[in-house]
Amino acid sequence: MVEIRCPADCAYLAVAREHPPAAAVRQQQRDIELAMQVIRDFNERQSQIFFLVTTFIVGYQPPELHSLADTDVAEATAALAATFETAARGVIYEHQAASGAGSRLAAALKPVLAEAGQHGGTPFQRDAAVVLRRLEEAARRGDGTDRDNPRALLEMLGRVIRKSDETSRQPDAEKGKEREAPPTRLIVP
Predict the structure, then answer these.
(1) Tens digit of pLDDT for each residue in 33-59?
(2) How many Cβ atoms from other residues are within 10 Å of residue 7's Cβ?
(3) Tens digit of each residue's pLDDT (9 = 90 or more) over 148-183
(4) Burial 38-57, CB ≥16 within 10 A → b, else e
(5) CA–CA separation, 175 and 160 (whole Å)
(6) CA 24 → CA 16, 21, 81, distances in Å?
(7) Which of 123, 176, 179, 183 is the most exposed place for a label (fewest CB within 10 A)?
(8) CA 31 to chain centre
C-alpha cells in the first residue's frame, strides 16, 4: 500500500471523507461512546483538564524500549490524583507510581498540570483529581474495543485525539532550526 498526501481539493479525498467505510464509522462511534462515558458528568474545567491530560498522554513519547501500557497510565494518574487530593486537604505529599513507566509518565505530566493550575488553587486540585481518577478507572477497565489489548485505552484515545495535518512551529533540537509539527485536535464524526 502506498500513501500519498493529497491536496485539500482532491476529488478522491473528498469522496473518501464523505463516504468512509462502514467499519471505520462503527469504530469511530464506539470510540466516541467510550470517551463520552469517561467525561459523562464533567464540568467545563474538568473537561478542559481531561483534554489537556489525554492530549499529552497521546503525544507522550516514552524512552526507547519502554512502551507505555494502560496499566502505566492507571498508575501515573492514580499517583497524580492522590497527590492532588492530599494537596487539596492542605498536605503536601508527592505520591509515586509503582512502575518505572508510570513514574516517568507522571513526572512528565506533572509540570503540564502545574502550569495549567497555576492560579486555580484548591478547586483546580479537586477537579484535576476527579479527572485523573476517572482516567485511572478507564485505564484499569481497559476501555477500548479489545479487552485483551494492554493498550486498549491508549489506542482508543489515539483514534479520538489525533494530530492535525495543519502545522505549527516547534524548535528542532538537532538542527537548531524550527520544524513543522502538527497540533492535536479532537475527531468527532
Answers:
(1) 888 888 899 999 999 999 999 999 999
(2) 6
(3) 788 888 989 988 887 544 334 444 444 455 545 445
(4) bbeebeebbeebbbbbbbbb
(5) 32
(6) 11, 5, 34
(7) 176
(8) 13
